[in-house]
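Render this sequence as a predicted structure.
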Amino acid sequence: MATSAGRSVFMGPRLRRLRRDLGLTQADMAADLEISAPYVALLERNQRPMTADMLLRLARTYTIDLADLAGDGGADNTARMQSILKEPMFSDIDIPALEISDLAVSYPGMAEAFLRLYTAYREEQLALADRRAPALTGGASSSDSEGYDANDPVAEVRRFLAARRNNFAVIDDVAERLVQATSGPSGFVERLKTRHKLQVRYLPPDVMLGSVRRLDLHRKQLLLEDSLDTASLNFQLAQQLVYLEMENEIGTALEDGQFTTKSAELLARRALAGYAAAALIMPYAAFARAAETRRYDLEALARQFGASFEQTAHRITTLQRPGAEKVPFFLIRVDPAGNISKLLDGAGFPFAKHGGACPLWSVHDVFKTPRQIVTQWLELPDGQRFFSIARTVTAGGGGYGAQRVERAIAIGCAAEHAGQLIYTRDASAPRAEAPTPIGVACRVCHRPRCAARSALPIGRELLPDDFRTLNVPFGFSAD
């Protein structure tokens, strides 16, 4: 088979995989296709190109879709490998783009093995960082595990997402097709009705008994709390569609993880279902294009896609599809007490693995100005600079007396990407030349003149105050 440019197409590994999946020998396939067994062997070894006639024979003989056999030509694997090979550890190896493409197309098994090995390596790197984190963020001594729990399900899921840059291209692709079939959120109810024979009913909170969504398969009903706002309602409808129609894709993604507990696997499954639901409401291609056009204006994007501020902020951290990467963001969500309930790192921000964040970060201060976006330039002790956007979000409510939970969300990116954000155009906002000096956590921050400090840095001795009391909580030598 030749393309319009005259380039031959070789599909040996895919033909071999098809034959093995069908349980056939080369002689069996040759007999079915009315060709010789040696010719099948040549095709599988990429010593003969795949012709259009042979593709049609395969499709007719084994009742398969030509698109399924042809696949994407290894485009996804090529993009993923190109992204990985930009890592500093490969910087001294000159690998032409054509070689990467040839490997992905001609040897998809080898490409998949490389990608799996790299992902496993990243997960082990993150796990090692978690093991070392307590010695940096507090605890009694660095000679033992200091409370590190290798089986912490939340930490496991964070590593699982971080190792994949919080992006799952296969889920995005399936979501795109489902969006086309449903015409977006407006068609979710109809899809549930026609494809799954489910009636959607809206019931008051006292009838729902603490649930916001419940699938009643016996009565063929999907029950939703009637006080949900539009964004939350769309998300719940999308999530139920995901559980009904995307279980295979979620299961495949989970198989790639190395979970040590059932709780971690269930948390990861929930995270992937949420990812898929967001992909139905904010499809990758359309959302990424809109994000660039609107210069990452979260409130404008939320209105365009009928999503909440938090849903939009979360989705914007997922725009790292290999070959279609956008600005990399991190996200953190905290409550008024400083507890971290959501953390996604796609921008290389060195979050503390335990404890809270720096009190000088505006994410802790925006509770004083509800619903207002506060921007801030941040500088870490090692000189790294980031740009942060913080705002409060509300969960619950929906009626008088209903419980509401106020939290703060902050997203940010490295300073070199900040110029692409609309928020840096505000002349009255804080300037990049005057960043707020913050630390990862007090125990690893060695800034000596911080009035907000709550703990003595590791490795520093407290200065006596017999003759002098400093204007900071903990005085210690600066060297």
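Summary. The longest strand covers residues 385-396. The two ends are 70 Å apart (CA to CA).
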